[in-house]
Structure formats: C-alpha cells, structure tokens
Specification:
Number of domains: 2
Number of helices: 16
Largest sheet: 7 strands, mixed
Order of helices and strands: HHEHHEEHHHHHEHEHEEHEHHHEHE
Radius of gyration: 21 Å
Strand content: 5-15%
CATH class of the largest domain: Alpha Beta
Distance between the termini: 44 Å
Helix content: 40-55%
Oligomer: single chain
Strand order of the largest sheet: 6-5-4-7-8-10-9
CATH architecture of the largest domain: 3-Layer(aba) Sandwich
C-alpha cells in the first residue's frame, strides 16, 4: 500500500502556475503544508488506535457504525478516517470494506504539532481545529454530543476567527486566490457583494488586492448568517475599506430568493464567496440567484476547496465532516456526488446549469497540481 501522503511539497507548483503571482507558494507555505500533512497522518493513526480499528478487516463505514452501535452522526467522519488512513498507506479499500494495517507506529501528533508551532506560531489554529475534531469524534459516535456543539460552540468561536485568518498560512491561500481572481474580474469602482463572509478575512484580502491594483471598489456589501461572525466580520471590513468605499452589512441565506431578503437584481458588479456555496441545498439554484444579482458584464468568483476528482477524499476535511449542514447537503448527479466539497467538474456543471457561459479556474492547471501534490485543493472559480 504505497503512501501518497505525507510527501515533500514539490517546488514545481510555482512553475506550474504561471497564471499566479510569482512566489505565491513560498518556502514558508511549503514547509507549513509538509508539517501539517505529517501531523494529520499521525493524528489519523492515533484515532484508529483509540477506536480499535488497527489490524482489522472492517465492513463499509455504514455497516461498521451500525455493528458497533455508533451514531450515524459520526459516520462521515469515520469514513474520513478510513480514507485518510488509506491516503497515508495505512489502510486498503477492499471489495468487502476496509483492511487497516498493524501496527500503526510513527511520530506522535503531539510532537509534530509542538515542532510546527514552535517554528511557525501562526499555524497553531490549524492544529487546534484538527485536534478538537479528533477529540470530539468518540463522543459524537457514542451519541453523547453533536459535532456542532463540540467544535462550533460559543467557547470555540475565537479559535475559528484565528483559523480563518490571513495570518494562518493554511487558510490565507484561499483568500489570496479569491482576491487575485476577484481583482482580475472587477473594474474600478465596483459594487461588491460577499456571501458568507465569516470573520472578514476574505474581504480584507480582496479589498487590499483591489486597492493595490488601482481599482478600489465603490461599495462593499458584507453578508453572513451567524450573528457573531457578522459582527466580527463587519468590523474587520470596516477597518479595511479604502477611502470613499461604502459599506453595508446584512444576513443573507444562499438557500433563499435574494428578493425575499431585500437584495434586488442587477445591483452588483462582483459577487464573491469563500468556502460557502458548497453547502447550498441546491447549488444550481443558489448560483442562479447570485447570477441575478449581477449587472451586465459582472462576475461571480468562488474561492473553494476543490476535490481533485468528484469522489476523492480530502485529508483536511475532518472538522467539516462533523457538521450536520455539511453531511446532509443533498447530493446531485454530476455536481455534488458526495457530501460537502465539490470537484471543478461539479462546479462547472452547476454554473452552466445556473446560466453562466464563461467559466475559468485559477490556477488553471489545478488538476496537474493535485497530481503532483495530492494535498493541493485550493482554487478560485470565476463565472460570467
């Protein structure tokens, strides 16, 4: 069972992405990813030992969940664990289920985390989020707690603000790609509408990029459903606005008609979202709603974690697999073929069905990037 991860993050990524600014994938980014990859492999081994999966032939995750009396709420996270073990060469997907190797020895996750955070303190939130999720899984499987309560409760909101920050290199790349694509799609004085803006880090990156490119926007509408994120994000955006740029903040639900939420058609030149639209109950309808908000010549730009293939596992996915909204997003043939994150082929089909005609990807050679380094998932998708 040859391991795909961890592996050195090839320095070819910069050469393979001439459509991105030089040096975007710098040595700090490479080293941060390599350390986090090692940590996730070690964490998965530790989780497998704790759940008594090591050295066993196991049925598919649904049957395993039922056989052990576990809650179905933990099934997707259990599937993540088995797939991640396979990604690291510790398990094999067989005709009847799974076979997990034994023994699962190697570095401890605690030692890797300590080394990584000492070398690059800004990466700490990425490790804390994964540790928090791993620690919660046994309780979720036992039906004693909900993933939302364990990892998105009031006591953890500060952690998520830190995680979804431009200071965290594991998250900042999402915002940077959105900002580059958004600035390329927008003209001077654009009216921008952001969906699901979280703590405001994507807006912060986009506003900086637009201003640096000499085309600051005229107005920015920041939206978010979670009240705490709406307040925090609104303050972040307010502090990031270039001179003369207006600001509005509001709740917006991608699953509802914009008109019913007080948002009129044709008002915006640029609509953006980072890691939000993959949770839409109906991606085609949600995207069609956003298309209706555009003025002539306007564009939608989505910063998304993109699966290498429609059914490919994602080794960073554990926290999201714990959340009901992620687990239960309806599947759609050719678009969302497994819960949560989608492939570019799925996005392209959804955008086409929503009425978009011109669809581009940044980096353009995303598929090759993922082949060279199977831990690369970040992209920005622009549609007109």
């Amino acid at each position: 069972m040859p391991a795909r991860l961890p592996m050195p993050l090839t320095r070819e990524l910069n050469a393979m992405t001439p459509d991105l600014p030089p040096g975007l994938f710098d040595d700090g980014f490479h080293v941060a990813c390599e350390r986090l990859d090692r940590f996730i492999g070690a964490l998965a081994r530790s989780m497998a030992r704790d759940l008594d999966l090591v050295g066993r032939r196991l049925p598919p995750s649904a049957e395993l969940t039922a056989a052990r009396g576990w809650s179905a709420d933990g099934q997707l996270a259990l599937e993540w664990l088995l797939e991640t073990l396979e990604l690291y060469g510790h398990a094999e997907h067989t005709a009847t289920g799974w076979e997990v190797a034994a023994p699962l020895d190697g570095e401890s996750p605690e030692a890797i985390r300590a080394e990584a955070v000492a070398a690059m303190p800004a990466t700490e939130p990425a490790y804390r989020v994964m540790e928090l999720s791993a620690a919660a899984l046994p309780s979720v499987l036992a039906g004693k707690t909900r993933g939302e309560d364990a990892i998105f409760g009031p006591s953890t909101l500060g952690l998520w603000f830190d995680y979804c920050s431009n200071s965290n290199p594991h998250y900042a790349i999402n915002n940077r790609l959105l900002a580059i694509a958004g600035s390329r799609a927008a003209g001077p004085g654009a009216r921008v509408f952001e969906v699901g803006g979280g703590g405001g880090s994507a807006a912060q990156a986009l506003l900086a990029e637009l201003t640096a490119d000499g085309k600051p926007p005229a107005h920015y509408t920041f939206t978010e459903l979670h009240p705490a994120f709406l307040r925090r994000g609104g303050r972040t955006v307010q502090a990031s606005l270039p001179p003369g740029c207006g600001l509005a903040t509001m709740r917006y639900d991608v699953n509802l008609d914009p008109a019913s939420q007080g948002v009129g058609a044709g008002q915006f030149d640029l609509v953006v979202a980072v890691n939000t639209l993959h949770l839409a109950e109906d991606p085609v309808e949600a995207l069609a709603h956003l298309r209706g908000l555009l003025s002539p010549g306007g564009a939608v730009v989505l910063g998304e974690l993109v699966r290498p293939t429609p059914l490919a596992p994602v080794h960073l996915e554990l926290p999201f697999a714990m959340l009901e909204a992620y687990r239960r997003a309806p599947l759609a043939a050719g678009i969302r073929q497994r819960p949560g994150f989608m492939s570019f082929a799925g996005w392209r089909q959804a955008l086409q069905q929503a009425g978009f005609g011109e669809i581009t990807l940044l980096p353009e050679d995303l598929e090759h990037c993922a082949q060279v380094y199977p831990g690369y998932y970040c992209a920005a998708i622009t549609a007109r």
